[in-house]
């Protein structure tokens, strides 16, 4: 069809004279024109119709509804059919339609007189064709995309919905929550069902849906007119399938993994918890404290119970948990987790143990000819380095001037370290792994986190044979028959502290007995004297002096 196009001045519009064709004034042309109306296209438009003198004879605005129809097939007056072709969405035109291309010499009774020239002010709102397909434009896409949306998946997405002319009709953002639904099950309009397929979590798309894949001839309420094309700007927040299990991604696994966590183990780990779009909802790092729990016992969400199975100490793992294995449809308000949200946990396992674990002992070096080994009640000197299993240094005897000294079995060190120091030779080196129930327990200690597994590197420097519990001195043979007389060196009938000390030291020097090993023998002897000087008058009398074995026997009789 031959159209007269061009911008006409006011005098020409006001008095065009006899017209052979439609006069078109394109007084507003949008900068972007993705499509022009062609013969056979469905269009929606608004218009005002007036006569030459400006008197209005019709207006779609006054009716509150756009006009929809097919252009170029004779369903409109010929002048309008011609004047609308080639228009872009949002373009505005003035049309002057001569009588022979309008209502001719007959007119419209009571509305349009015969031989009337008609003036139309038109704005194009929508263009589509029955052969149109969905138009999908990817606006942005994450670099990593391990999975895309398929039919029967449950999706959570944000959207802005507009008509083709940009008029907004709905937005999830204004509601403050995502739109959550299944894909491909008929819960959405067909165009959206198709437009979401193949999306990645975090992807943004523009989806243009023709009316026959949207709300068609009926439209939707007052917000979507009949035969309206719809434009959705979509951000896919996350998606899952009801059949999904936990997805694991091993980010970093130590080269040496002697043991993997199983049900019943107690695990200490750090984590960052995010939604699939990266929104952080919780972090143990922010509290500067690991999360500590048993796994496989129902103390944590099922997805994490499963996701921590098989971890190594020191492993970094990503655990993706679908909502049916997390907080379900209700979410968790405390953590600002929306309903039906997929959760992503980036986990760093610090350590784990089982309540039945013993001390793990690895002998690094053992001297040849090792015949004498440590036993409980022995006095030992040793060096040590203590750390957490992630390498965090806690304590070291090398920070002090001399080795650590302790009597084994005297409850002076944690049970696990005491066990690890038994049966050692002087010069032997070991690595000890001490579970918390043999260490500092759930409460921890100064500088030691609660429930922490400890690693000790120990080297035994020296050892002295100990004495039985409760004894400060033992005889190597039978004690002298006349013990008091031998101890009373000046034979004055009383034994002061200096005589007592001289006697005991002599017995030790002659190999007849030994003191409880200690870094301060004088204190041990002073304690012995204090125990024998029962009335604390500064000397021991014959009635006060008693052997430990005799005292124990007397106590037995008293109890009997």
Automatic annotation (TrEMBL):
**E.C. no:** 5.2.1.8
Could you confirm whether the keyword rRNA-binding appears in this record? no
Highest taxon, organism lineage = Eukaryota
Q: What reaction does this catalyse? A: [protein]-peptidylproline (omega=180) = [protein]-peptidylproline (omega=0)
Give yes or no: UniProt keyword Phosphoprotein: no
Enumerate the InterPro entries for this protein: EF-hand-dom_pair, EF_Hand_1_Ca_BS, EF_hand_dom, FKBP-like_isomerase, PPIase_dom_sf, PPIase_FKBP_dom
Q: Where is the EF-hand domain?
A: 483-510, 520-555
Chief localisation class: endoplasmic reticulum
| Compartment(s) of residence | Endoplasmic reticulum
**Sorted UniProt keywords:** Calcium, Endoplasmic reticulum, Glycoprotein, Isomerase, Metal-binding, Repeat, Rotamase, Signal
Which ranges carry the PPIase FKBP-type domain?
Answer: 40-128, 152-240, 264-353, 377-464
Name a GO CC annotation attached to this entry.
endoplasmic reticulum
* One Gene Ontology molecular-function label: peptidyl-prolyl cis-trans isomerase activity
Instruction: Identify the stretch(es) annotated as Disordered.
Output: 529-560
Gene3D superfamilies hit by this protein? 3.10.50.40, EF-hand
Q: Name the PANTHER family on file.
A: PEPTIDYL-PROLYL CIS-TRANS ISOMERASE FKBP10, PEPTIDYLPROLYL ISOMERASE
Function statement:
PPIases accelerate the folding of proteins during protein synthesis.
Q: What is this protein called?
A: peptidylprolyl isomerase
Organism, per UniProt? Leptocoma aspasia
The record's gene field reads Fkbp10
């Amino acid at each position: 069809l031959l159209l007269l196009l061009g911008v006409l001045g006011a005098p020409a519009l006001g008095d065009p004279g006899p017209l052979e064709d439609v006069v078109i004034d394109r007084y507003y042309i949008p900068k972007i024109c993705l499509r022009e109306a062609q013969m056979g296209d469905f269009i929606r438009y608004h218009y005002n119709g007036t006569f030459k003198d400006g008197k209005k004879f019709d207006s779609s605005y006054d009716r509150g509804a756009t006009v929809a129809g097919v252009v170029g097939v004779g369903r409109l007056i010929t002048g309008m059919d011609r004047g609308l072709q080639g228009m872009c969405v949002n373009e505005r035109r003035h049309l002057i339609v001569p009588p022979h291309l309008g209502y001719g010499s007959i007119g419209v009774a009571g509305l349009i007189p015969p031989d009337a020239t008609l003036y139309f002010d038109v704005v194009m709102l929508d263009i589509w064709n029955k052969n149109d397909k969905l138009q999908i434009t990817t606006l942005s896409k994450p670099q990593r995309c391990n999975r895309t949306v398929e039919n029967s998946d449950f999706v959570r997405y944000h959207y802005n919905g507009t008509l083709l002319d940009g008029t907004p009709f709905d937005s999830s953002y204004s509601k403050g929550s995502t739109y959550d639904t299944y894909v491909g099950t008929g819960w959405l309009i067909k165009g959206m069902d198709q437009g979401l397929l193949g999306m990645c979590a975090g992807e943004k798309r523009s989806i243009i849906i023709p009316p026959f894949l949207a709300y068609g001839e009926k439209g939707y309420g007052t917000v979507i007119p009949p035969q309206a094309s719809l434009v959705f700007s979509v951000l896919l927040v996350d998606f899952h399938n009801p059949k999904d299990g936990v997805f694991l991604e091993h980010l970093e696994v130590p080269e040496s993994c002697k043991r993997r966590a199983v049900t019943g183990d107690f695990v200490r780990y750090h984590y960052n918890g995010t939604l699939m779009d990266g929104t952080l909802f919780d972090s143990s790092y922010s509290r500067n404290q690991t999360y500590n729990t048993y796994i496989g016992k129902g103390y944590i969400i099922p997805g994490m119970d499963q996701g921590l199975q098989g971890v190594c100490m020191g492993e970094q793992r990503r655990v993706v948990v679908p909502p049916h294995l997390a907080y379900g449809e209700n979410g968790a308000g405390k953590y600002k987790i929306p309903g039906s949200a997929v959760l992503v946990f980036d986990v760093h396992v610090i350590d784990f143990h089982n309540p039945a674990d013993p001390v793990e002992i690895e002998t690094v070096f053992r001297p040849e000819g090792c015949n004498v080994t440590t036993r409980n009640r022995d006095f030992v000197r040793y060096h040590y380095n203590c750390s957490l299993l992630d390498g965090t240094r806690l304590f070291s005897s090398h920070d002090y001037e001399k080795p650590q000294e302790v009597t084994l079995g005297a409850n002076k060190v944690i049970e696990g370290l005491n066990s690890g120091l038994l049966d050692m030779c002087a010069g032997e080196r070991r690595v000890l792994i001490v579970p918390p129930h043999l260490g500092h327990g759930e409460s921890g200690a100064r500088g030691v986190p609660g429930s922490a597994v400890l690693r000790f590197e120990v080297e035994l420097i020296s050892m002295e044979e100990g004495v039985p519990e409760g004894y400060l001195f033992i005889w190597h043979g039978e004690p002298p028959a006349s013990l008091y007389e031998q101890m009373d060196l000046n034979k004055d009938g009383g034994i002061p502290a200096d005589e007592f000390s001289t006697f005991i030291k002599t017995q030790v020097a002659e190999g007849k007995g030994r003191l409880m090993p200690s870094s301060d023998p004088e204190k041990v002897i002073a304690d012995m004297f204090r125990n024998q000087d029962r009335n604390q008058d500064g000397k021991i009398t014959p009635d006060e002096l008693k052997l430990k074995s005799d005292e124990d026997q007397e106590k037995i009789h008293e109890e009997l």
